[in-house]
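Assemble and predict.
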Amino acid sequence: MTTPDQHQDTPPQNRPQSRPQNMGAFTPEAQAEDTCTKPSFYAYFIKRPIVGAFSLLTGMGITLKTLCNVTSTVTQEYPENRDTLTMPPAFRGQVIMPHDEEGEHKCTACTLCEKACPNGTISVLPMKNIANKKVLGKYIYRFDQCTLCSLCVEACPFDAIRMGNDFEHATVDKDSLVMVLNEKEGRL
Amino acid sequence: MDLVQTEIPEGFTRSAGGGHTEEYYLNMGPQHPSTHGVLRLMVRLDGETVKEIVPHIGYIHRSIEKMAESQSLIQNIHLTDRLDYLSCHMTNLGLCLAIEQGADVGVPERAEYIRIIVCELQRIQSHLLWWGCFAMDLGALTAFLYGFDEREKITDLFEELCGARLTMNYFRPGGCVSDLPNEFIPRILKICEHMKTTLDEYDNLVSKNMIIRERTQGVGILSKERALSHGCTGPVARASGINYDVRKDEPYGIYNRFDFDVPLGATGDCYDRYTVRIEEMRQSIRILEQACKDLPDGDFRSKEKPNYKIPKDEHSFSSVETARGNFSTYVVSDGGKTPYRIKYRSPNFSHIGAINDMASGYKLADLVTVLATLDPVIPDIDR
């Protein structure tokens, strides 16, 4: 009676056929001793198929249980549930500049966000208003360079910008990713 | 001229001969589903038996350590997300601990607890993904879906906490970006309770499965001595019997307050690496339950500074236990806003070096098993 040895043609390395029972006792001698042990006829041809078949049936039982359990369905039909899909408030989408009802924003062109940005995503272009005061002219945001780290939002002392909740950013036009966030020049 | 010698690819030793067939070389990767990324393995084969493996890395090198020199310390935190993206809270924490040590920043009590909770959640999440991918590499697709189902619950929690699912960028020197949202702790406890029954289910589905056992037991053995000499850490080293866990041996944060065990393997084969990771999830649940019980009120961040500067010639060092092993950060400062040099020590680099010891002598299909139990994250190797 020869037991099938699947590693017959491989070099004799430390390859125990069964795991040592004394967990924790790790010595090269114990391993070398273990290499010599071959599985017995009973263990290989009687116990192994029975235990193996039972373990496979247990696994199939779990799969069947999940299959029949309709409450375990977790799939979201994404494009269909677009109207009801809401992102958590903390979600970091692209940077947006909220405007109030009169179309005014809170940006004062202090350029703290520009300095906080690691990638040079933001360019704040200030201008002089009629009273010769520095206000925001253009707030240029290059979304194609943005890593959405939200360091600019943390740096802003006036809450003028925040991270939006939009996540569908795919576009075929690269130029559309460079945008001006403010609708009109600053008042402050 | 000896033609045979010139034909040996770079990195391979000269064959001793004595094989059954003519030896040949096979290229596995860089685009291969079981290498978990762009890892290329050159394999010398005798028939189907692996004789020698030479890993080739560098396909996803992004020079993060060089970029670190031109960015301020705070701006570097989001780059550490891109190292080990499955344990990015831990890599964030590694850099934050180094900055706190160098710039002498204190952390409030509540922030320390939040850090522990978030890190252990991430460890469970990373191991769940590994569990699914491990089963899929061995040919069981069902387990992959189950693992991702459970992982999704934790990922949803992270999305509510810090707004991202993968690149978290949540920790800052002196605490965290934001406080925990409402109803966060009860949901974590619910997940913990659910995970206990789920892990038993996983045992029945995969751990006791005879096919998985036959393919992993006695395969890919890494001895304790070889694991030590390769610098293996984390579950790979613990499966080989090395009792080393950064959380126990050099506790960072407040890990010394929690009661948890470090699971150890006996032989260092693939099945030991499997069981150690499954047991680690159970221990993480234990830590989570203790941390959620003791979570105090208070601030989530100490007083914010516009710039965190480490004094000139100050070297700060921190090491954390990620889901894969010891992740260390070494920051050298020249007194300016940006660091002079940041060196990251990643666990996966050491593990890939040990793959020749693990997989040579076994069949080519066992190499896939070994790779799956190593749980490599390739961007962490290349940086």
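The two ends of chain A are 93 Å apart (CA to CA).
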